[in-house]
Amino acid sequence: MEYRAEQRGEVLLIRIDERQATLRNGADGFRSDLEAFVRAGNRYIVLDFHAVQYADSTMLGAILSVYGLLGEDEGDLVVCGIEGAVAEAFGLAGIDRIVRRFPSVELAVSALA
Prior knowledge:
7 strands, 4 helices, globular, 5-stranded mixed beta sheet, Transcription Regulator spoIIAA
C-alpha cells in the first residue's frame, strides 16, 4: 500500500495514497507498518484518508488493532478525510464510535498535539 509518513512534532501523519485500502492493495502489510511505527515510539498517529474511496475489513481491522496498541501506551490514533463509502464502512463497523474523525489534517493533528 502506498502512503507517506510525516512527523509533525509528536504526531505521525500518515497520508494514504491509494484509492482502495484493501487486502489486495496491501492493507495487511500496512497494519504491520503501523505496528512498527508504534514499536518505534510513535504514540500519536493521524491517518489521512482523503485519497481513499473504499476500505475493506482488512483496513478497518488494522485501524482497530493499532488503536488498541496505542491505547495501551496512553497514545491515540485519529482519522481525517473520511467520506462516502469509507464513512459508511466506518459507521457499519462501529469504528466511528471508537476512533475520532476530523474533516482536515490540520484539525486532526492539532487534536493530538
